[in-house]
Amino acid sequence: MISINKPQTDENEVQAVLDVMRSGPLTNALGMGPKVLEFEKTFAAFAGAKYAVAVNTGTAALHSAVMAMGVKRDDEVILPSFTFVATAEAVVLSGGRPVFVDIDPKTYNLSPKAVEKAITKKTKAILPVDLYGFSADMKSLREIANKHNLGLVEDAAQAHGTTYAGKPAGSFADAACWSLYASKNMTTGEGGVITTNNAKIDETLRMIRTHGEKTKYTSEMLGNNYRMLELQAAIGNVQMTKLPSFIAKRRRNAEQLTKMLQENTQLTLPYETPDCQHSWYLYTARLINSTQTQRNKLLDNLKAKNIGAEAYYINPVNTMPFYQNNYQTQTLPETEKAAKQVFSLPIHPGVTEDEIKFIGKTTLELL
Ligand SMILES: Cc1ncc(COP(=O)(O)O)c(C=O)c1O
Questions:
Q1: In the CATH scheme, what architecture does the domain 11-239 have?
Q2: C-alpha pair distances (Å), 132 with each of 51, 82, 197, 300, 359
């Protein structure tokens, strides 16, 4: 099976872990061991940000960033429902109420118009997602956030390599949250990192990461144990050196697939512009005018040919039992439609040019 994603590691990561195992430290009580500090420096440079704070998951990154916006009990945070559930968990864990709004069907990302309509006196922050690795409309969202004095946290979990207005993902947000989970464009197994250009937010995030402390046993605010292990950071430091080539390979595969699939009129292919570039975390196409059953049949047929195609976010978060039972939610027609029609094809760096040809040819034949 050509898998939809596969962590790309070799002996260099193995050696880096062994070195930490042999010489330590395994972690640092304030989350600032030498490997973590090195990782934060290189990741900040990659993201074009002043500060990076490494944590132990992307979910921890999101929770910390939403907390750092000052979200408290019953504050509202506006976010898409067409995302991985962690985006919403960050709001609920902070005591806030998620307010789900609809997407722009062209990009699958938060619709700024829908965001503006959803703002109330209780709104505290906006939480867009760069879905599949294509940036949300951050300039419009920045303007809305400024106009209404709201925090702007970007879920950049899938956006390593994404550009928006020619800049790396995260550049227009108060804080951007990246995941380093095993499926992502780079990985530390589990892991996360938050980037920001704001010194105060950086300081707050560092405290949240380790029990609200600046010094041991003196909690100044509510925090958690979100520290990244030195072992994770050691893997991350090796992965950072490979990230540009990972992204280039994903792009090469995506472009080759688009060349093949663009002749078919039943598909809408991923959207990109010269200054808003994909990270190509997922190559997601849409089966136009299809029912969920037709899309699922295509997925089954692709799998039968050993192509690990997947449909992500088939249950938009607002339709999940926990969110339906606890939060009032409007219907989101574009979200619901997209969830039934999209499917993703493998383009990770381990997929060869021949495999891409096979994926393209097979998809066309099945259609
Ligand atoms: C959009 C999105 N947000 C948040 C997360 C959570 O990241 P993690 O799995 O590292 O906690 C992920 C990835 O899993 C994601 O894809």
A1: 3-Layer(aba) Sandwich (3.40)
A2: 24, 11, 24, 21, 19
